[in-house]
Amino acid sequence: MCSKEKFYITTAIAYTSKKPHIGNTYEIILTDAIARFKRFMGYDVFFLTGTDEHGQKIQELAEQEGITPQEHVDNIAAEIRRIADMLDVSYDKFIRTTDDYHQKAVQKIFTKLYEQGDIYKSEYEGWYCTPCESFWTDTQLENGKCPDCGREVHKTKEEAYFFKMSKYQDRLMKHIEENPGFIQPESRKKEMVNNFLKPGLQDLCVSRTSFSWGIPVEFDKKHIIYVWIDALSNYITALGYTPDGKSELYNKYWPADIHVIGKDILRFHTIYWPIMLMALGEPLPKQIFGHPWLLRGEEKMSKSRGNVIYADDLANRFGVDAVRYYSLHEMPFAQDGNITYEVFISRYNSDLANTLGNLVNRTVSMINKYFGGEIMPGDTAGEFDDDLKAVAAGALSKVSKKMETLHVADSLDEIWKIVNRANKYIDETTPWILAKDEKDRPRLGTVLYNLTEAIRIIASLLSPFMPETSEKIKAQINAEDLSAESAGVFGITKPGTRVGTAEPIFARIDAEKMLKELEDELGGDEEPQVEIEPFKDEIAFDDFEKLDIRVGKVLKCEKVPKSSKLLRFELECGSETRQILSGIAKFCKPEEMIGKNVLFIANLPVRKIMGLESCGMILSAEHGEELRVLTTLGDIHSGAVVV
């Protein structure tokens, strides 16, 4: 643990044009998880978020609504803050660019840059995209449209002030080269360097005269300070920065440790913002992380496409922590994630209800049933104990390493390794059988003690990601300590502690019923119809009966060395163990398969693949571009025949 080392983290401030959808909201959930984890590890965290409230688009929307721009942004900013609060976001400050202190600081920043010769007045003629607040030249347009959003642009000619970007280009290139972690992921850095810096920077338009909703230039009131100087400055004005003096808060927390932003505004944060800071003589942020998008199906969410899902709608149906879990777990580090109601419900049932919720419920129920709710001493050692303890106690270090590189989804996977190992431990130790014999009660007490400890560590590690769930688990096992220090130690729970009542943390959802409700509510199919492969020719029933389809419990699952496709499964099938190779490595994570019941064809000839025998075929189903292994619901014994 650190000794209160400072950590300053920000989201991009949300644009107040309309209510944010889950794709927009993902960013604040991600940033909150990082901020909470840093606090969990002992850092002195300052977490900033807020709203970007000026610009031509805001003015036009307000005119359409018949209200003032201030009334419009007040309404949307309140909605953005309400959603952040509902999602349990632990921000320390919420800045609005209409805040008086921010506007005054921005005016002084503009004046300073002008007086030192970094800003000059000229005339702009080119193409303007109102939604993106961006100017483009003829050569930058793609098919005559905005290269960022693909929307229509319009020709604009007006007097404007410009920032001398090229003056600082070489200095910025040198900084990026000397600080390889400055822009993350690596692919985003290459994009910025190759597409913008190497071809050469053009001077940046930093004022407008064609609309009035913005911060006036202090010495030339007909000019409005253009969005990027206004919006980007929030990261320092929120801390009390002005060119005239710096606050104690600014001196403590600046430079920012990380700006978390969407990949679509990377250019502004990795080129314009660092150059502005260089011109002001201020340190640059340590890191800028351009996260990917959360897509609806294969498309970016947009009201015009009619494919928007809102975070508060999801939370009202499934709970806040289910939304946080899905958002954090289903978004890869550097690639776009995907959300549909169907997949959301599937993840909810499999990961939250069946795997995590069931583990807690079974354990607390057994302690209540067998020992009247009292946790017994864990001093009767047996087989499988050491492995469970090692997995649980070793997880903190692994989660910390993943979080250091912002691999948040992988951090959750590390926590779920404990969940899966604990569920497997129940199957291995069979506490319901131990309960039948009085002489096995000490061992039964130890098994339940070990499960309680594993669950305590799970609750501790989950606290930055799913704080409400962590607290619910803590209450059910009556844990005293969920600190990071305790998460790395197995054996803290005091014997004699009494657990609470076993209550489902995540109640299983009837997927078919829920999807039907959503379909009725949305007035159409929730998901687009999927084209399926043509049905194969009919076969005789006798031919089908020749297939021996069985249930096998996955004991081991691992990648085959030197193969990018193959997984090696060891299946328990009744009293025998089978090895089966399956070419599904890119579709599932081996550790997630352990302990699951899968369906396989048992009477196929033995095949040799890469020198290994494969005794059967695991059944999978197509799901879009993926394959999903077919598993069973409920406890079906291994070796059962599928009829």
Summary tags:
643 residues, seven-stranded parallel beta sheet, 19% strand, Met-tRNA_synth_2, 22 helices, EC 6.1.1.10, alpha/beta
Radius of gyration: 28 Å
Kindly name the structural category.
alpha/beta
**Biggest sheet descriptor:** 7 strands, parallel
Q: Please report the number of helical segments.
A: 22
* Strand runs, count: 25
Mean pLDDT: 90
End-to-end C-alpha gap: 55 Å
Oligomer: single chain
What would you call the shape?
A: elongated
Unreliable stretches covering 5 or more consecutive residues: 524-532
Helix content: 40-55%
Strand content: 15-25%
GO biological process, one term: methionyl-tRNA aminoacylation
Main location: cytoplasm
Subcellular location: Cytoplasm
Protein name: Methionine--tRNA ligase
Descriptive notes:
Helix 17 runs antiparallel to helix 18. It is built from 22 helices and 25 strands.
Task: Compose a concise summary of this entry.
This protein is α/β, with parallel strands linked by helices and 643 residues long.
Topology of this protein?
Elements: E1 6-11, E2 14-15, H1 22-40, E3 44-52, H2 56-65, H3 69-86, E4 93-96, H4 100-115, E5 119-129, E6 134-136, E7 154-163, H5 169-178, E8 183-184, H6 186-197, E9 204-205, E10 207-208, E11 215-217, E12 220-225, H7 227-232, H8 234-237, H9 248-253, E13 258-262, H10 266-280, E14 288-291, E15 294-296, H11 311-318, H12 320-329, E16 337-339, H13 341-371, H14 385-404, H15 408-429, H16 431-434, H17 441-462, H18 467-477, H19 484-487, H20 511-522, H21 541-545, E17 549-559, E18 567-573, E19 576-582, H22 590-593, E20 597-601, E21 607-609, E22 612-614, E23 617-618, E24 620-623, E25 626-629
Parallel strand pairs: 1-3, 1-13, 2-3, 3-4, 8-14, 13-14, 15-16
Antiparallel strand pairs: 5-6, 5-7, 7-9, 10-12, 11-12, 17-18, 17-20, 18-19, 20-23, 21-22, 24-25
